[in-house]
Specification:
alpha/beta
């Protein structure tokens, strides 16, 4: 009884509630990155090793801020080039790193996480002055709409996380990516590490300045977690995909539940342009 009374009194420390954070990474939104062929392909790009170091530095900067803000575990999904862009040699030792493919349709994200963050994220295909913009395929998809709203990879993750009850709380990337993120989650934190002049040119921060900003924003996101709510869609949800002339329908469509049809033919057909499902 004495112990029960004492622990209920003000001033006595309580055990911290576990707070798992899920981080997804990409390359095109990393500070210093502006050219796909020169920098973003681990097998072909002459400046790949530099790009790898830049991404690793930004990831570690975010991890530092997340832990300072109250995270108890950080799980990092290597989201660029089929999970071949990070290494256990350079990553913060506190991180659980997911590399390689295939993974689950949710990239192993589930409802056990308390927050979701982006590092190195780019804006959707066609975004004004976005650096290396694309949606999923770099040259296969022209547009995606979710319930009539233009949506890119940022929106896909924000909506998926929200469906699982996980708030998307922070993003690092260029100005266009931050604008896209804030359109969905206005109260979230953004680290603008570069500002596009065109699709392949940008004003950049120094690497050290970018990392300092990312750490600060990640810390603030954790400290303000209670103010940032999951993004919720209510069903039914309609997803429309417009491919370029070089694009081909995503095979993943045929593996999802719901109705799939190709509007330009006017007949239902698996794996094509229009998908309706309940949330």
């Amino acid at each position: 009884m004495m112990v029960a009374i004492a622990t209920a009194l003000p001033g006595f420390a309580q055990a911290a509630k576990p707070l798992k954070v899920f981080m997804t990474t990409d390359m095109e939104g990393v500070d210093g990155i502006f050219d796909l062929e020169l920098q973003c392909d681990p097998q072909k790009s002459p400046r790949w090793e530099e790009s790898h170091r830049l991404l690793t530095g930004e990831v570690n900067a975010a991890v530092k801020g997340l832990y300072e803000g109250g995270a108890t575990e950080v799980f990092v999904y290597d989201g660029h080039n089929s999970g071949r862009s990070l290494s256990v040699l350079g990553i913060d030792p506190r991180v659980h790193l997911l590399e390689g493919r295939p993974v689950s349709p949710t990239a192993e994200l589930d409802a056990s996480y308390g927050a979701f963050v982006f590092v190195g994220q780019h804006a959707m295909a066609g975004a004004e002055k976005g650096v290396l913009t694309h949606t999923e395929s770099s040259d296969g998809i022209q547009n995606v709409w979710v319930n009539g709203r233009p949506t890119g990879e940022i929106g896909f993750f924000v909506m998926m996380a929200g469906h699982l009850g996980v708030p998307a709380v922070m993003l690092s990337g260029d100005t266009a990516a931050c604008r896209e993120f804030h359109d969905l989650v206005p109260e979230a934190e953004c680290a603008e590490v570069k500002t596009g002049v065109s699709r392949t040119a940008a004003w950049m921060l120094s690497h050290s300045a970018a990392c300092a900003l990312i750490t600060e924003k990640a810390r603030r996101a954790m400290q303000r977690l209670a103010q940032i709510k999951p993004y919720k869609l209510t069903g039914p949800v309609e997803v429309k995909v417009e491919y370029t002339t070089r694009g081909t329908p995503l095979h993943s469509c045929s593996r999802r539940s719901g109705t799939v049809e190709r509007p330009d033919l006017g007949i239902p057909r698996k794996g094509y342009h229009r998908r309706v499902f309940d949330v």
